[in-house]
Amino acid sequence: NCPFQAIEQMSQIDEVSARLKDPNTVVVFAPAPAVRVALAEEFGGKTGELTVGRMYNAFKKLGNNVKIYDINLAADQTIWEEGMEFICKVLYHVVGLKKWEIDEEMAKALGIEPVTINLEWCEHHPLPHFTSCCPGWIRWMELYAPAVRPHVSGTKSPQQIFGPSAKTWAALDVWKVDPRKVYNVTVMPCTSKIFEASRPEFKSAYEYLKENGKIPEDTPPFPDVDAVLTTRDMAELLRRNGINPLEMPEKIENPEPTEIYTGGGTIFGTSGGVTEAALRMAYFVLSGEEPPKWDIYPVRGYTTGIREAVIPIPVKLLGGKTFDLQVCVVNGNRNHLPQIVKEVLDGSSKYHWIEVMNCPGGCVDGGGQPVNGMGTGWIDGLFPIPKEVGNSI
Ligand code: SF4
């Protein structure tokens, strides 16, 4: 009866180990944001101890053909896509635009060419906007609240953005290897990511490569993500190979483009992080200015249940008139989600943006993390909140 088919989920450590021994396979490890603040604990380190370089170097020691593609970078890619999606919805439903001309100045700031975006698609995608990066929430929505689907972001999760990016852009342009040799292994705090990776719709690298003649016609289909290891699985794989990340150097030698990311991607690892990253982008694009502060404390924190915030944004296309963006952050689905969904469906919801993370505290407390710690320690490592601010408004 488990919605994630947990009974079919087996650890993939043995399969990954076999691939590491195959000289014709390039094994790509993709660690999620929350893994780097939990892995140390498996080796006797402190709860919340941050290991980025040590983690990369430990993974690379597993084989000669190992590459890293940090999921933090994929989270940055997610925010580009989901942030733009949300901004389009605000411009259509709040500002009343049918087309959005991204002028030269904004295009330059975003690093793109000036473009006009047709916003008519937003007619079928109303506000409030629900996030889509947590497969636990997505499966809950599919089973218990499918009517809310038009409100849910069409952007894939960082794991599923990583998969095709690694087998197309990174394989072809960064590592210069045959994409058929790339074996993608995500390292996740999450057991439902195993289910997400196995969904049959996630074969977009295969489809793209085939359509564009980058792989032979008769190549059998392959998934975007080949294997998912939890943080505990990864620790076990390292132990089996006699590798202790805490004994590795912290310095990353010659980082590749797949190992570089921003703080916006890093904070995806905890409840409120996706929202904060998206709000930074929405503020910048809608107002044409940097926000007064990049830290948006009211959406951060460990509080189970919901957190709310109102973010005033002076909208350039409204002549600087302020739009009060109403934000809601939900974690631990059983607490408030049914009521929030009910209000969205009956039209009484006051929110424009709703982030949902299935686990209390978000991914730092996911089902694949070490079992000894409590999320507050991990959150301090990943996502500090000044004492005077507290963890909720
Ligand atoms: Fe997975 Fe939990 Fe994070 Fe959702 S909140 S992606 S279920 S670890």
UniProtKB/TrEMBL annotation:
Record key words, sorted: Iron, Iron-sulfur, Metal-binding
GO molecular function, one term: metal ion binding
Keyword Iron-sulfur found: yes
Domain of life: Bacteria
Glycoprotein as UniProt keyword: no
Protein's name according to its UniProt entry: Iron hydrogenase
Location of this fragment in the whole protein: 80 to 472 of 472
